[in-house]
Design goal:
It contains eight helices and seven strands. The relative contact order is 0.15. By secondary structure, it is an alpha/beta fold.
Length: 240
């Protein structure tokens, strides 16, 4: 039976890695994106070899009605990967209230409303898996990334609560918390800053988007069938 998975933020570095990994496993995919049209076109071209059904959906999850743009285009569904995100680096006293609202909508409000709208499709099957791509900062917090840490921490709190709510219905809810991953999100750091970060990580290196994709694939699989409400850390030992 063909299984359909939704990936939000599928045109970004981690999103593309997840999409490729799941396509290799035989899943058909709903691929959400917003601004990165070029990245989505490239991803769709790369996925052709796997022979599944790959459906791009453009929606602005930073807008109040954006979640409806996404959910109205989804039919059969077996899993959701909430991966959309933006970062912000700066002091709380300098935080733009409009940016804070956008950040919370993308990371928290829209994922909750998308889940609310699409959950009945899984409940009808009494099966499914929901995964949040959170962050190490949602676990321990980071100076100068307080708003981002708050948003990612809220994802984890919602994940844990929802996992208890739907466990009896055969739906598992988990999160992956990446550490420092080599994607566009790190492009604002200097070479020296990245070297300093690597020096703090026990494994001595940055992670890859594929490392995150492997964790997602595991949580979707039958090998994780007795796991729910868990945060799987992918951080090279940076936080334990």
């Amino acid at each position: 039976m063909n299984k359909y998975i939704l990936i939000t933020g599928a045109s970004g570095g981690i999103g593309q890695a997840i999409a490729k990994k799941l396509a290799q496993q035989g899943y058909s995919l709903y691929l959400h994106y917003y601004k990165n049209q070029t990245g989505m076109e490239r991803l769709l071209e790369e996925l052709k070899e796997y022979g599944g059904e790959y459906i791009p959906i453009k929606a602005d999850l930073a807008s109040k009605e954006g979640y409806k743009e996404l959910t109205q285009n989804i039919f059969s569904l077996d899993g959701m990967i909430h991966n959309s995100g933006i970062s912000h680096y700066g002091l709380v006293m300098d935080l733009d209230p409009n940016l804070l609202e956008i950040m919370m909508r993308i990371h928290v409000t829209s994922p909750i409303l998308v889940t609310k709208e699409l959950l009945p499709k899984m409940l009808s099957k009494q099966a499914g898996s929901i995964i949040f791509i959170s962050s190490i900062w949602g676990q321990i917090g980071a100076a100068c990334e307080a708003a981002y840490s708050a948003a990612k921490g809220a994802q984890i709190a919602f994940m844990k609560a929802l996992s208890k709510e739907v466990a009896y219905n055969g739906i598992r809810v988990n999160a992956v918390a990446p550490g420092a991953i080599q994607t566009a999100m790190l492009e604002g750091f200097t070479k020296k800053e990245l070297e300093d970060i690597q020096g703090e990580i026990p494994m001595g290196k940055l992670g890859s988007a594929e490392n995150v994709a492997d964790a997602v694939n595991f949580l979707l699989s039958e090998q994780a069938s007795y796991m729910t409400g868990q945060v799987l850390s992918v951080n090279g030992g940076w936080f334990m």
